[in-house]
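Support reply, case 0932

Customer input (verbatim):
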Amino acid sequence: MLEIKNLQVNYGPINALKEVTMTIEKNKINAIIGVNGAGKSTLLNTISGLVDPDQGEISYKGRQIQNIPVEKRVKLGIGHVMEGRRLFKDQSVHDNLLIGFYFRNPKEKRRNALLKINEIYKQFPILGNKQNQMAGTLSGGQQQILIISAALLSEPDLLLLDEPSLGLAPIIIDEVYQLLEELKSKGMTIIISEQMAALALRISDVGYILERGQVVKKGDRSYLKSLLDSDGLSSVYLGKAKV
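Our regenerated output:
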């Protein structure tokens, strides 16, 4: 699905990513783990096109995309849920969903958009009940569900999520992670960045640990889980939650 080779991103004298190489297989959940400042957000932003790399290649479905603008990457099937629940907070829930749909499908008929949005309302009744409410007045968990739903309306094959559990209550985190597992069961490929790795490892097939912009560990879920109690990986990366 995605091949990253020797990716490097610099912010002036700061090396945010240093020759990052990874392979993202189709229909798997991939965890990007690391503390704040490790390069997780920069990596996702570079994949989606919000940040230009200084060197390296990004191949999506066999096509190099590192020089393709953001909007074209969306149309190719890459969705990005950024950290901080970035919604149009002064617009209604319904309008946020319309924007999500039309970003990839600008020429689609409104009827088709409404049919897709009604499917979202069936899946998440809380959004249907609050469809005329301003997005900025929703709870943190409701905003997270809304922004993921808006991203899903662009019909991505590859979904990027940056710290989706940040600031959410445990019960809401469980709902979000259950949704990600459902999306995987329907064939979607997912990359999720998390500071608390134990959360991501609950559902991930493969994990990469970033430290100062470099991949320092990688492996499947069972391998990374085996490091939880070892000296080879500090608990600062993995947190205390059970996997």
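We compared this against your earlier run and they match. Two observations from our side: The chain has ten helices and ten strands. The longest helix spans residues 170-185. Please reopen the case if you see a mismatch on your end.
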